[in-house]
Specification:
- By secondary structure, this protein is an alpha/beta fold.
- The protein has a single domain, classed as 2-enoyl-CoA Hydratase, Chain A, domain 1 (Alpha-Beta Complex), CATH 3.90.226.10.
- Helices cover 36% and strands 20% of the residues.
- The protein contains ten helices and 14 strands.
- It has helices spanning 2-17, 73-85, 104-121, 136-139, 168-174, 198-223, 227-233, 241-247, 256-267, 308-314, and strands spanning 37-42, 48-55, 63-64, 69-70, 90-99, 101-103, 125-134, 146-149, 154-156, 161-163, 238-240, 252-253, 274-279, 319-323.
- A hairpin with a 4-residue loop joins β3 (63-64) and β4 (69-70).
- α2 (73-85) packs parallel to α3 (104-121).
- The longest helix has 26 residues, at 198-223.
């Protein structure tokens, strides 16, 4: 069966590359074109708690793959929030966050949509942090009515980073240059083909500082840390869960069952109310540690070369990020 599937996939790829070959929409795997469906993980009551996973890099740009395109984090989460909003039996949302953050705009869009969802529905929101909920991962957690972190969660990294490649040293070594004609002195600021000037560095730092001020301002608005705690938070360092609790970034440490119980408590629904997820296909022996929405038949993942962190970093465009870099993959 596995050999047959790989043969069909290879045939489809070859067909698409050969000139004159008719286009064939060959779909071997469940993907984002399939509708999200509701699956119950626990409970039997009429009322529901919806658990939504936010995993990996946060962006509003879809991720093209070898066989299929993966929806952006923003797209996937908003699709699930819309389903929840249209179901009168949904009484609480539980976000399972395992993310080092992402782009400034992607994180801010998701934050904004969660805030607006709460305004429209008055449905309580709880966050359970997993391995990492840093920078943008923390940013999207702030609207929650209650935040629980695993004892081993790494969170914090509240700040902004600006990243851009620099090629000019290599270009000088191989004798290649880039001639630029521009309408203003700062039109090509941040160019990878030349060093930045002191004035440009100041302009970039001002942008970074403004974005960081927005972040810390929202922390103050949602979490109300003390002045001493805020000074520590503004260093943009990461914290283990216990320290995050002391600083007021997190309400308590615990595990997913604790977060489910808290969501039911805030929603004032029974302990037997349903815990549901939205997925595109059914998983046998499913449980709340499964964060996938798609299922490839037989869990087949086709990847010719896994470049890991190198691929992640080289695919990131120049820009501003709410991101903890060491956990960016």
């Amino acid at each position: 069966m596995l050999k047959s599937l790989f043969g069909m996939a290879a045939a489809a790829m070859i067909c698409s590359l050969v000139s004159g070959c008719a286009f064939v929409d060959l779909k071997l795997f469940t993907d984002a074109r399939d509708p999200l469906k509701e699956f119950t993980l626990d409970g039997q009551g009429k009322d529901k708690v919806v658990m939504i996973s936010v995993v990996g890099f946060i962006s509003d740009i879809s991720d093209p793959g070898l066989i299929k395109t993966k929806p952006s984090t923003v797209h996937e989460v908003l699709s699930q929030l819309k389903l929840a909003e249209n179901d009168k039996n949904v009484k609480a949302i539980l976000f399972q966050v395992n993310s080092p953050g992402g782009t400034v705009t992607g994180s801010d869009i998701l934050y904004h949509e969660i805030v607006e969802f709460k305004k429209r529905t008055s449905i309580p929101v709880v966050v359970i942090m997993m391995d990492v909920a840093a920078s943008g991962g923390y940013y999207i957690s702030m609207p929650a009515d209650y935040i629980i972190a695993h004892p081993t969660t790494v969170t914090g990294s509240i700040g902004t980073v600006f990243m851009r490649p620099q090629f000019y040293s290599l270009m000088n070594k191989i004798g290649v240059g880039m001639k630029v004609e521009k309408s203003g002195d700062n039109k090509d600021m941040g160019s990878p083909f030349r060093p930045s000037t002191p004035e440009e560095d100041k302009l970039f730092q001002a942008l970074i500082d403004k974005m960081a001020i927005r972040f810390t301002g929202l922390v103050a608005e949602h979490r109300h840390p003390s002045e001493e705690a805020m000074r520590e938070i503004k260093t943009a360092r990461v914290f283990l869960a216990d320290d995050a609790v002391k600083l007021g970034l997190v309400d308590k440490t615990g595990y997913i069952p604790d977060a489910v119980a808290k969501a039911r408590e805030l929603a004032k629904i029974s302990d037997d109310s349903k815990l549901v997820v939205y997925r595109r296909s059914e998983y046998h022996n499913d449980n709340y540690y499964n964060t996938a929405t798609n299922s490839s038949h037989g869990n087949i993942n086709i990847s010719l070369v896994d470049l890991g962190m190198f691929n992640t970093l080289t695919n990131m465009p120049s820009g501003f990020y709410y991101l903890w870099m060491p956990s960016a993959e």
